[in-house]
Amino acid sequence: MLFIQVVLPVFVIIASGFVLEKCARLDFRTLTLTSLYLLAPALVFSALMKREFDLSLAGNLFLFMILYTAILYALSRGLAALLGLDGESRSALLLTTVMMNVGNFGLPLTYFAFGEAALEISVLTFVLFNIPLGTLAIVIAQGSRSSLPTALANMGKIPIFHGVILAFFFKWIGWTPPDFILRPLDLLGQAAIPLMLAMLGMQLARTQWQARVGFFSLATAVRLGVAPLIAWGLTALLGIDGLTRAVVILQTSTPSAVLPLLYSLRFGGRADLVAGTILMTTLFSAVTLTILLYLL
């Protein structure tokens, strides 16, 4: 029942985007910009403004994000060295194991699983994990051609963070925007989740990849098998429990993120390895996430 009620609806929306893209090539750039610059920031801002912000929760999740990312990075880099992967293949492994689809897969998944009560936690998790996705992922994709200041500058261009800063500032000064501002933002935010999933399906429909069974199996095992164990252990170590624990573990056990594929295409990395891993982890996550939901 958990698969039918929680996981299957996610894949139905992804499949609808996949079929739509195959039948009618849409303007993917326009949809991406709409989601990135309008709907996602509205979702983040309205979700944070509607709830009391818990500083201790944010602090715990930030520490979790740092440790989780560092452990997965060290593990994947060690595996790449052990297997003698070349630079581009190593970058592809790091991008597909360290960076998970915490947004357009993780947000709707946790919403379907735990409802409105989980939204504050899942949005905070989404925002925090966009820090390595918007900085470390760019550095990995570019290799020695990128600098950390450049990556940070690129992160500052993502409107999601502007929405977070505004929400935190308004809460700090104790001001709540009037309803004629909050209601439109809330409606825009509600459109973000289904569009994100449909766009994931569209992106998978556009993906060109070659069979590299060994690489794909390794990356999938780390992303869907090892990563949830790391999340489980860290939540216990940091004393994260209850609904927060369940949301964080589930949301960080999602398939490989799509954004690193765009980085690989932009900077000339092994886009075929990244795309193939995204596809494989997305398909196999139907099984792993269902099992994880039962355990949680």
TrEMBL record:
The chain crosses the membrane at residues 6-24, 31-49, 61-85, 92-115, 121-140, 152-174, 213-240, 273-295. It is a multi-pass membrane protein. Keywords: Cell membrane, Membrane, Transmembrane, Transmembrane helix, Transport. It comes from the Bacteria. Gene3D superfamilies: 1.20.1530.20. Its main location: membrane. The keyword RNA-binding does not apply. It is found in: Cell membrane. Belongs to the auxin efflux carrier (TC 2.A.69) family. This is AEC family transporter. It comes from Geoalkalibacter halelectricus.
